[in-house]
Automatic annotation (TrEMBL):
One of its GO terms (biological process) is bacterial-type flagellum organization. It comes from Thalassobaculum litoreum DSM 18839. It holds the Pfam family FlaF. Keywords: Cell projection, Cilium, Flagellum. InterPro entries: FlaF. This is Flagellar biosynthesis regulator FlaF. It comes from the Bacteria.
Length: 132
């Protein structure tokens, strides 16, 4: 997942306006996922996360910018990994839920470096890499 994530961050130079939309949506859904850890609206937060990553994967497949193919593939692969993690989290896997939160936080920090430092996290310790 880590290599896919790095490639996704490289695509940010190609994405323009969607960059800010993705950052705000991922930030919002990550807060919802944090609440889901305590049982509040878990299914809804996971579903919203899945929808965002599904859109990111579709956008990677159909992007008409000068995005290099390897970055497009890696972005699509990261989206697939995140969708799989959503399915595992929806089935009750706490590790997958935490991984969704951490990867979203890390992606948001790449999309919007102005986020408060406390929002950022080291998303890529071994447990997170093994989720997908």
């Amino acid at each position: 997942m880590h290599a896919h994530y790095n490639a996704y961050r490289k695509t940010l130079n190609h994405t323009g306006a969607s960059r800010h939309r993705d950052a705000s949506e991922l930030a919002r859904v990550t807060v919802a996922l944090r609440h889901a850890e305590t049982g509040h609206d878990r299914a809804q937060a996971i579903e919203e996360t899945r929808q965002i990553w599904t859109r990111c994967g579709v956008n990677a497949c159909h992007d008409e910018t000068a995005m290099p193919d390897e970055i497009r593939r890696s972005m699509r692969d990261l989206a697939s990994d995140m969708i799989l993690a959503c399915a595992k989290a929806a089935a009750g896997d706490v590790g997958s839920l935490r991984a969704l939160i951490e990867v979203n936080q890390s992606v948001v920090s790449g999309l919007n470096p102005a986020m408060p430092r406390s929002f950022h996290g080291d998303a890529f310790h071994p447990r997170v890499r093994q989720v997908a």
